[in-house]
């Protein structure tokens, strides 16, 4: 059976000599993803993901520090520098109604209420108050679209599109 994996962090370096790693998290759910006992997979180019079990986790500055049951010294973990930490699709938490994973939003076509193609979502930026979707226009320019109810009218994952109330002045940046 083919398994789908999703990135939750990147191992950016080793930490200490007991096989701990410094991880730059790419998940909003660090407390859930990195709890002791949680299973993660480390994925490197051209090889099958390796299953690892979290032994310890703590945060340090902007990084997450992880130790794994299967790794006991720096030599065993050195080869994973730059590798992605992943989870399987079965490990993903369902999101509340109206919430989406970034990977579901990026690539969607954006249409106005008048059914005019406005562009494609190329990136999601976190700003604190609300996310901002970067829309690449057909002319190559980018427009920042606030992901708020007044602007985003419908997200249709089946049709791979978003319907928006295109505010006057958005294109004049």
From TrEMBL:
One Pfam annotation reads PRC_RimM
Provide the RimM N-terminal domain boundaries: 8-90
- Which InterPro entries does this UniProt record tie to the protein? PRC_barrel-like_sf, PRC_RimM, RimM, RimM_N, RimM_N_sf, Transl_B-barrel_sf
Location(s), subcellular: Cytoplasm
Q: Which keywords does this Swiss-Prot/TrEMBL entry list?
A: Chaperone, Cytoplasm, Ribosome biogenesis, rRNA processing
Q: Where is the Ribosome maturation factor RimM PRC barrel domain?
A: 104-170
NCBIfam families listed in its UniProt record:
16S_RimM (TIGR02273)
What quaternary arrangement does the UniProt entry report? Answer: Binds ribosomal protein uS19.
Q: What is known of its domains?
A: The PRC barrel domain binds ribosomal protein uS19.
> What exactly does this protein do?
An accessory protein needed during the final step in the assembly of 30S ribosomal subunit, possibly for assembly of the head region. Essential for efficient processing of 16S rRNA. May be needed both before and after RbfA during the maturation of 16S rRNA. It has affinity for free ribosomal 30S subunits but not for 70S ribosomes.
Question: What is the name of this protein?
Answer: Ribosome maturation factor RimM
| Native source organism of the sequence | Ligilactobacillus acidipiscis DSM 15836
């Amino acid at each position: 059976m083919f398994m789908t994996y999703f990135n939750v962090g990147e191992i950016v370096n080793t930490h200490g000599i007991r096989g701990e790693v410094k991880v730059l998290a790419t998940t909003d759910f660090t407390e859930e993803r990195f709890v002791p006992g949680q299973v993660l997979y480390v994925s490197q180019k051209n090889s099958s993901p390796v299953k690892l079990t979290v032994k310890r986790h703590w945060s340090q500055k902007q990084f997450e520090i992880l130790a794994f049951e299967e790794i006991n010294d720096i030599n065993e973990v050195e080869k994973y520098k730059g590798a992605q930490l992943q989870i399987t699709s079965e490990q993903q938490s369902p999101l509340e109604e109206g919430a989406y994973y970034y990977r579901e939003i990026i690539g969607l076509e954006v249409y106005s209420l008048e059914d005019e193609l406005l562009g494609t979502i190329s990136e999601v930026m976190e700003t604190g108050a609300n996310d901002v979707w970067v829309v690449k226009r057909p002319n190559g320019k980018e427009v920042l679209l606030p992901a708020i109810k007044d602007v985003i009218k419908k997200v249709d994952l089946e049709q791979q599109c978003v319907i928006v109330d295109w505010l006057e002045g958005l294109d004049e940046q």
